[in-house]
Amino acid sequence: xxxxxxxxxxxxxxxxxxxxxxxxxxxxxxxxxxxxxxxxxxxxxxxxxxxxxxxxxxxxxxxxxxxxxxxxxxxxxxxxxxxxxxxxxxxxxxxxxxxxxxxxxxxxxxxxxxxxxxxxxxxxxxxxxxxxxxxxxxxxxxxxxxxxxxxxxxxxxxxxxxxx
Length: 164
Description:
- The protein is mainly α and 164 residues long.
- It has a single domain, classed as Arc Repressor Mutant, subunit A (Orthogonal Bundle).
- It has seven helices and three strands.
- Strands 1-3-2 form a three-stranded antiparallel β-sheet.
- The longest helix has 27 residues.
- 10% of the residues are buried.
- The C terminus is likely disordered.
């Protein structure tokens, strides 16, 4: 069953408001950390696994030059390092340094503590249900974005042509 247009519109408004609120909280709680908000995002993705910069740029939804500047800044801070990709000497792999891992842990612990404080009036059940719904929403959006990036489904197009 499809979501009604007015429900989708309200959901979009709520997502927009959530994005703004998260951005405001992130900015206000990251003061005093040498890695700004954008760099913290890059650090988180690099922390998941050593990756090519092109893969990281695609995951973050930024251009290669923007990511390159972020990586250079994180390198200057001693939080990441680059090495040649053994499978392709022209490419580089980016990974966290020990200092980068420690910084990422500190940032995430700080964010968790901040969120716990902001949600002090929530029940455990409310938080778990919200996390579950947000996960489902994120997965649906990611899958839709992947499908869009992959282009039209040729099987669907053929069926439409045959039936149309």
